[in-house]
Write a structure and sequence with these properties.
Blueprint: H1 3-23, E1 29-30, E2 41-47, E3 54-56, E4 60-70, E5 75-80, E6 93-101, E7 104-113, H2 119-129
Parallel strand pairs: 1-2, 5-7
Antiparallel strand pairs: 2-4, 2-6, 3-4, 4-5, 6-7
Length: 130
């Protein structure tokens, strides 16, 4: 075989391997029940405001725990390995990425959807126009 053809096959094989490893990244949302298999997943839900949140910035600055309900209504304790996000209590929706271990979801990433400060203004403008 020609040397260029062999190099081309090797580059294609490496490209396929890289693409397949990247595509295994978490891309769809799961529930806490789906996370029981121990794989890394993304879960979307709401903060359980009636349950305690624990954050001790002096002793454990990179550990924040709270309870969250997924879209199916299952409530689970979440331990985030980062500091408590600012305005966390005001979030409308939370997306956590991590693994479920011994009944606790260990998250290493969090995204929050907070209410828009412009929401009331948009409603007022629509009412004036109509």
């Amino acid at each position: 075989m020609n040397r260029n053809i062999i190099i081309s096959f090797i580059l294609i094989a490496v490209g396929v391997l890289v693409f397949s490893s990247v595509s295994k990244d978490v891309s769809t949302y799961a529930s806490f029940k789906d996370a029981e298999n121990g794989e890394r997943v993304k879960i979307v839900g709401q903060l359980s405001k009636d349950k305690p949140m624990e954050y001790d910035p002096q002793n454990k600055p990179n550990e924040f725990s709270f309870f969250m309900k997924d879209d199916k209504g299952v409530e689970t304790k979440v331990v985030l390995s980062k500091p408590k996000p600012q305005d966390f209590e005001m979030s409308e929706q939370i997306v956590v990425t991590g693994v479920l271990s011994e009944g606790v979801f260990e998250a290493n990433e969090i995204l929050m959807k907070c209410p828009s400060k412009y929401k009331d203004e948009e409603i007022a403008i629509r009412n004036q126009e109509g």
